[in-house]
Specification:
This protein is of the alpha/beta class. Helices cover 44% and strands 20% of the residues. It has 7 helices and 8 strands. Strands 1, 4, 5, 6, 7 and 8 form a 6-stranded mixed sheet that branches. The chain has a two-stranded parallel sheet with strand order 2-3. Helix 1 packs across helix 2, helix 3 crosses helix 4 and helix 4 runs antiparallel to helix 5.
Length: 261
């Protein structure tokens, strides 16, 4: 059965081929999930709920949004399939819980309350065929329509670090999503891409047209081709190793903790 690629699948290979092998080839479950990633998932789920409630005609205020976030945080920690691990010393679960609550509250007051875009879908799933016959899928945080019925692709980021412009891996992720959306919406000639960095309260955007998306499709297909033709998967030690759930079985020099059985 042909492999269906995602942007995270491709970038995992590019960042560390060994992690890619463990996850996508060997099917090994990570020993833990980082608390930063856990915060991000709960914040995203809260924003998804907020927009779904609005579409259904039910407006939720900031206090209700924070309460929803806290509830799914508490439930998520108890029911997590793998341990939620704190990597940074000197921080507690409550510190991270409050980080997410502040992001939700700030987003509601500064962005959500005054948002005038029409939400088309939240967590919009797509699967399309790229040049070269590659199957590609993804989940878009929010797909909306603005003035002139133009599509707007929005991705919410909770990371501590952010670029200074619409650039890097985050921007490429939205360009990849645009490739798929132009295939789903053959009448669209332009669409807006927007990255919202919730921790910082900043946004970066770019307009992309169909010819630009075709150019990026070629780049994306080439990147997938590099994944498919690889036969070796060496570890790439670096500062992110501590956050990797495979660092107990990887022989890279940043290995920490006892090896699992």
């Amino acid at each position: 059965m042909p492999t269906t690629y995602s942007f995270s699948r491709v970038t995992t290979f590019e960042q560390c081929a060994r992690r890619f092998r463990y996850r996508y080839i060997d099917g090994v479950q990570e020993a833990f999930q980082s608390v930063e990633g856990f915060v991000g998932r709960q914040v995203h789920s809260t924003l998804e709920w907020l927009f779904a409630e609005r579409v259904a005609g039910r407006e939720q205020n900031a206090e209700q949004a924070v309460a929803y976030y806290c509830d799914i945080w508490d439930t998520g920690v108890k029911e997590a399939g793998s341990p939620v691990k704190i990597i940074r010393e000197g921080r507690s679960y409550e510190d991270y819980r409050l980080d997410g609550a502040r992001m939700v509250e700030s987003f509601h007051k500064n962005d959500f309350a005054g948002d005038c875009l029409e939400t088309v879908a939240v967590e919009h799933h797509f699967t399309v065929e790229l040049d070269g016959g590659h199957s590609f899928q993804g989940f878009i945080d929010r797909l909306a329509r603005g003035p002139g019925d133009r599509l707007c692709v929005i991705d919410y980021k909770t990371s501590k670090n952010r670029p200074r412009s619409f650039s890097g891996k985050d921007a490429d992720q939205l360009r990849a999503y645009a490739v798929a959306l132009f295939k789903e919406h053959p009448d669209s000639e332009e669409m807006d891409l927007r990255l919202d960095y919730l921790r910082h309260g900043t946004s970066f955007g770019q307009t992309i047209d169909r010819p630009q998306a075709r150019e990026f499709e070629t780049v994306l297909a080439d990147r997938i081709g590099s994944v498919e033709t690889s036969t070796v998967y060496p570890p790439v030690p670096g500062r992110l190793c501590d956050w990797c759930g495979y660092n107990d079985i990887c022989e890279g020099p940043r290995r920490k903790g006892p090896a699992r059985d």
